[in-house]
Amino acid sequence: MTRIGDVRVQLVEIPGLLEGAAEDRGGGRALLGVLRNADAIVYCHVASAPPDDLTSVQDEVKAAGIERPALLAVTKIDEAEEGDVERLAAAFGDLDVLPVSVLDDPSLERLREAVWLLLGLLRVYLRHGGDVDDEPLAFRPGATVEDVAHAIHHELATSFHAARIWGPSARFDGQRVGRAHIVADGDIVEIVP
Questions:
Q1: Domain 2-119 carries which CATH code?
Q2: DSSP collapsed to 3 states, the chain
Q3: Burial class of 110 by CB neighbour count within 10 A (0 to 12, 13 to 18, 19+)
Q4: Average pLDDT, 10 consecutive residues per value, the chain (193 residues)
Q5: Where are the CATH 3.40.50.300 domain residues in the chain?
Q6: Phi/psi at 175 (5° precision)
Q7: What is the pLDDT of residues 60-72, one digit of tens each?
Q8: Cβ atoms within 10 A of the Cβ of 13, count?
Q9: CA distances from 24 to 38, 53, 60, 62 (A)
Q10: Strand runs (DSSP E) across the chain, as ranges?
Q11: Contact in structure between 120 and 9 (CB atoms under 8 Å)
Q12: Maximum pairwise Cα distance, the chain
C-alpha cells in the first residue's frame, strides 16, 4: 500500500512472466489473473536490459486478452549508461516511459504521480458538521453524489435527500445538489439526510 494524492493505492508485484504464460507455463494463468483484476499495469524493466525481455512479457499479456492502461518504469537509472532510457523509449513508443531509481526520491514521487494519472481516479473529501476528512475517497470519473453516499453506507445512498458541495463541480461554495450531481476531483461533499 502507498499513498498517492492522499488516497491509499495498492500496488501488487508479480514475478516476471515466462514465455508461454498464457498457456500456464510457470504458473502464468494465476499471475495473469492478478493482471485481469488490476486497474492498470506498470511494467518494470531494468535500464540496461534488452527490450526483448519486456516484449515477450507484453506478448503474454496480450495473448491472455488483457488490456489495461500501462506505463513503463525504467528501473536502476542510477546504473544506466547514456542512451539506455532512450533505447527503451524507442522500443516501447506506445507506453509512457518513466526513469526511476529507489535511490532517487524525486523519481519515485514522479512514479506515484504517473500511477495516479494512469488510474484516472478522482478524490472526493467528506464533510461532517463543518469538519473535512483528511483522507479522501477515490472514484472513477462520472461518479455521482449517490455514489459518494453509497461509499459511506449503502442505506444512506437510499435514504438521503441532497448534498452540499464545495469545490470544482459546485457553482458556489455549499451548493445544494441532488443525488445525480456528478462530482469532480477535489470536491468536498456533505450528505444531507
A1: 3.40.50.300
A2: CEEECCEEECCCCCCCCCCCHHHCHHHHHHHHHHHHCCCCEEEEEECCCCHHHHHHHHHHHHHCCCCCCEEEEEECHHHCCCCHHHHHHHHCCCCEEEECCCCCHHHHHHHHHHHHHHHCCEEEEEEECCEECCCCEEECCCCEHHHHHHHHCHHHHHHCCEEEEECCCCCCCCEEECCCCECCCCEEEEEEC
A3: middle
A4: 86 81 80 89 93 88 92 93 92 93 92 93 92 91 96 91 96 96 96 89
A5: 2-119
A6: -55, 135
A7: 889 889 999 999 9
A8: 7
A9: 19, 18, 10, 14
A10: 2-4, 7-9, 41-46, 70-75, 96-99, 122-128, 131-132, 137-139, 162-166, 175-177, 187-192
A11: no
A12: 61
C-alpha cell at 12: 501488487
User: Which residues pair with residue 124 across a beta bridge?
Assistant: 137, 187
- Amino acid, res. 6: D
Can you tell me which residue has the cell 516476471? Answer: 16
Class of the domain covering 122-192: alpha beta
